[in-house]
Amino acid sequence: MQQQHRQPELVEGSLPVFVFPTDLVFYADDQTSHKQVLTLYNPYEFALKFKVLCTAPNKYTVVDATGAVKPQCCVDIVIRHRDVRACHYGVYDKFRLQVSEQSQRKALGRKEVTATLRPSASQETPSPRPHDDERRIKEQFAESEFFEQTAFQTESRPVAGGPSLLTVLLGLVCMAALMLPTLGEQESTVPVYLHLSVNKKLVAAYVLGLLTMVILRT
Fold this sequence. Notes:
It comes from Scophthalmus maximus (Turbot). The chain is α+β, with helices and mostly antiparallel strands. Among the domains are: 104 residues, Immunoglobulin-like (Sandwich); 35 residues. Strand 8 and strand 9 form a beta hairpin. Helix 2 runs antiparallel to helix 3. The protein starts with 17 loop residues before the first strand and ends with a helix.
């Protein structure tokens, strides 16, 4: 009798998460560095869904802050620095990638990635990060609060201000044209040169109908 292999139930936060790179460095004088790419790998036999959180979401734009990764596949997450100012030089922010199974809501694993803005790449010497510096960063983020990172900032739509003055005036002209007597009417106190033909009134009625539709949509 064959035994059925069951996948062991994963404990929340115990699933290893594979992300590259683990450090993002943006350079103020190099616009090409303002866009970085994080690659999330899924070496498992089941699909994963992910969410990107950040300690400073207002400084970054994340393309596809939430999504899914198929089994044994990977996905690229584009991160753009959109607040390149001198006051942010040397400040360490952090991204947290949370993953879970598509059928579950609890986070099975998480991985944190540091991000920093520096003035220029030419001013740096390639050297490993000092141990004291690493310890300071870990202490800084030990109790950090992460916020949901939206993919794109929602564009605010201008509030509709109603129909334009030109639309209103044109509508009044069409209404006045329809109220004028038709060409050929004898009993009218209106001068003859203000009498309109049937075709002209039909045009005025058609234009008035179009203006009404425009006004209702605004």
